[in-house]
Amino acid sequence: MNQEIEIRWHGRGGQGAKTAALLLADVAFKTGKYVQGFPEYGPERMGAPITAYNRISDDRIRVHSNIYDPDYVVVVDETLLHSVDVTAGLKKDGAIIINTAKTPEEVRPQLNGYEGRVVTVDARNISEEALGKYFPNSPMLAAVVATSGVMGKEQFLKEMEASYKHKFAKKPEVIAGNMKALEMAFDAVGC
Amino acid sequence: MRTDITKINEQTSHTGLTEGMRICASGTSRLFNTGEWRNSTPVYHEEQCKQCLLCAPVCPDSSIPVKDGKRLAFDLDHCKGCGICANVCPFGAITMKEGIE
Amino acid sequence: MAIKERMSGNEAVSYAIKQINPDVMPAFPITPSTEIPQMVSTYIANGEIDTEFIPVESEHSSMSAAIGASAAGARTLTATSSAGLAFMWEELLLAASNRLPIALALVLRTLSGPININCDHSDGMGARDTGWIQIYAENNQEAYDNFIQAYRIAEHKDVKLPIMICQDGFITSHAVENIELLEDEKVKNFVGEYQPEEYLLNPGKPISVGPYAVTNYVMEGKKNQLIALENAKQVILDVAKEFAGISGREYGFFGEYKTEDADYIILLIGSAAGTAKDAADQLRKEGVKAGILKLRVFRPFPAKEIAQALKNCKAAAILDRCESYNTNGGVLGSEVTAALYQNKIMIETVNYMYGLGGRDFTVEDARGVFEDLRNIVEHNAAPEQFKYIGLR
Predict the structure, then answer these.
(1) Mean per-residue pLDDT for C4-20?
(2) C160 and B20: CB-CB below 8 Å?
(3) C chain contacts of residue B25, beta-carbon cutoff 8 Å
(4) Do C205 and C133 share a domain, yes or no?
(5) Which structural domain range is residue A164 located in?
(6) Which residue, of C247, C279, C308, is where some domain finishes?
(7) How many domains does chain C divide into?
(8) Cβ atoms C140, C125 nearer than 8 A
(9) Is C261 helix (H, G, I), strand (E, B) or coil?
(10) Which domain holds residue C301?
C-alpha cells in the first residue's frame, strides 16, 4: 500500500458511515498504523447526506483538513449518487466502492466520468442474509479494507472480532452474524 | 496568611493586599466603626422598657446587645442611627435624637 | 512505557480527568464539549473515580458552582464551548479575581451568530481579557498533555489562577487519532494532591471570599492578578520541563517548526498548525525556507519571546481564527505586531483570517499564504492585510 491512504465516506445520517470510519481507524490502529477517523459535522439529521474521513499512514499524521483528493471513496447509500458528487477529486488509480445490487458497469454512467476502478457490493443482500437486518456499515467496512488492502483478511477479521466482542459484550448473539457479513463482503470484493 | 485587617486600608500598596482580596479572619466588621456615619442617635429609656426584645433582632448592625434575656445599652460605635428600633418599640422606650450623641 | 492508544480529543481530555480524579465537576452540556461531562460522569457511575458531579441548569451555574467548590477547597473543573463560555462571562472574571485555580476544558466553537456549531476561536479569544490562563492544543495528544499540566500551573503558589485548556471543536475533539497515554500512577504523582492554604470548609479558620472592593482597592487587586499571570510564565516552563521528564514530550510557550533558518513563518494557533507544517515541508523540498510558529500559551501572552522567535525571518503571516471587528485585523494580528514593534523588530507581517465557522484550512491554503509572503519579499509587493482565506 501507499505510505498514506485517504478515504472519504458518503452516507446518510443514521446509516453508520461515521461509525464505520471510526471502526476502520480502530482496526488500522491495531495493525500499528497512524490513523485518523473523523466525520464532517453540521446540523445533519437522520437521512441527510453526511461525510466522514479516514487517513491511514505509516507516519504520524499532522494534517487536520478534510480530504479532497481521496484514494478511495465509499458510498454507503447509492441514492446519494443522484445528489452528491461522490467522485470529486477521487484519484484515478484509486477506487470507488458503492453499496448497490448493480454491477460496476451499470453504475459507472452515474459517476461523472470517473475512469478508475469501480467496486460494487450488495451490502443489503449480505446484511440481510448474515444478520437478518439491514446494517450496511459492516459489509462496507469489509469492502473498503479488501479494496484498499490496508490489511489482510485474516488480520482484519481477527481485529474486528475483538472489537465486536467489546462492543457487543451484552449482545454476543449478534457477533457471529456481523462476522459473517464482514467475510461475505470481503470475499465479494474478491481481493 | 491569616489576615490582619488593621494593616489594610485605602493607602495600602498592592503588595500589602491579600490574594484575591480574601479576608482570612472572621468578625472583622467589628473593626469598622460605622457609628461615625450616624447623624441621629437612639436614646434608651430603660424605665419604659418591658424587655420584650422586639428591637434587638431588627437592628441591621447588631448594635443592641442582649445578655441573659435582657437588652443592654446601645453599641454606639456601630449604630448608624437608622431608627428602626425606635419605630418597632411598642412602649416608647427608644426615641431618636438629632445629632451624634 | 507509554501506552499507545487511539482516541478522540474529547476522550483524551476525559481520560486525563479520570487519571487526575478531581474533587468536583459542575457541568452543563453543549456541542462539541458535551462528551467530556458525559464520559466523566460515566467514569463516576462506574466507580472508577470519586469526583462529585454537579448537574446544573446552565453554564452560568456551572461556573458559579465551580467557584463555590474551588473556594471551599476542592480541586474543581468544568467543560464548555461557545455560547456556554459566553454564558459564564461574569463568573469567568470572578474566578480569576478570586484567584481560584479552576480548570476549564474548552472545546473551541464559533460564538454565534450566525449560529454555527463548528470550530473557530471566537469563544476562547473572546475570553482573553478575563484573567484566565489559556493554553491551546494542536491535537488530541496536546489536549491530553496540557490538561495533565493544568493544575500544576494553576495551583502553584505564585500563580493561583484559573486555567483554560483549549482544543479545536470537532477537528480534534471528535477526530480519532493515535495518542500516547501515561500510566495512572505517573499522572497521579505528577499532579499531586491539592492543598490550598486557606479555604472555606476549614473549621476554625474562617475566610471571606470575593468581598466588595471600593474604588481604592480595585486597581491594586488587578495589578496582583497581573503579577500572578507574569509569574505563570516561569511556572508554565518549569511544569513543562518536569512533564517532559515523565512523557518525553516537550512544551514551551509555542512550538517552533523549522523556524530557526526560516525566511517565511506562519504563526497560528491550534489544529491548523499541523496542516501548515505539511505545507512547510513541501516548500522546504522545493527550496523555500518555510517555518511554523504554533502558539500554545496565549495568556499570559509571550510577547517578547514571540518577537525574538520571528526576528530573523523576512516576513511572517499571522493567522487569526476569530474576527475582532476592530477593522484592523484579528486578535493575534494586533498582539503580535504590537510585540514586534515594542521589541523594535520591523519585519514584514501580514494578518489573515481563516477557518471562521469551521471553514476548512488545507495544505493548499497554507501554501498560498507562503506564496503571498514570498511575493511581498521578492517583488516588494504591498501586503494585502486582513484577507479572508478561502472567501467566496
Answers:
(1) 97
(2) yes
(3) 206-207
(4) yes
(5) 4-189
(6) C247
(7) 2
(8) no
(9) coil
(10) 254-388
- What does the block give as the cell for A171? 449482545
Residue C321 CA to residue C323 CA, distance in Å, equals 7
Compute the nearest-CA separation of A104 from chain C (Å): 32
Question: Is residue C110 within 8 angstroms of chain A, CB to CB?
Answer: no
Do B21 and C210 count as a contact with CB atoms less than 8 A apart? yes
**Which of C155, C198, C199, C202 to mutate to probe the B interface, most B CBs <10 Å?**
C198
Q: How confident is the model at residue A16 (pLDDT cuts 50, 70, 90)?
A: confident
- In chain C, the DSSP E strands lie at 3-7, 24-27, 52-55, 77-80, 103-108, 133-136, 163-168, 176-181, 254-257, 264-269, 290-295, 297-299, 315-320, 348-353, 387-388
| Cβ contact C206–B26 (<8 Å) | yes
The pLDDT of A56-62, averaged and rounded, is 96
pLDDT at B64: 98
CA distance B30 to chain C (A): 15
* pTM, entire model: 0.94
Q: Does A35 touch chain C (CB under 8 A)?
A: yes
Give the pLDDT confidence of B28-66 residue by residue, as tens digits.
Answer: 888 889 999 999 999 999 999 999 999 999 999 999 999
Which residue ranges form the domains of chain B, and what is each CATH number?
A: 1-31 (no CATH), 33-101 (3.30.70.20)
Is A26 in CB contact (< 8 Å) with chain C? yes
Interchain contact, B21 vs C197, CB within 8 Å: no
CB C237 within 8 A of CB C254: no
From the CA of C273, how many Å to the nearest CA of chain A? 8
Contacts of A26 in chain C (CB under 8 A): 6, 176
Largest CA distance in chain B: 54
pLDDT tens per residue, range A26-45: 999 999 999 999 999 877 67
C345-373 residue pLDDT tens: 999 999 999 999 999 999 999 999 999 99
Nearest to C295 by CA among C317, C273, C311, C279: C273
One domain for residues C361 and C220:
no
Angstroms from C219 CA to nearest CA on chain B = 8
Residue A126 is predicted with a pLDDT of 96
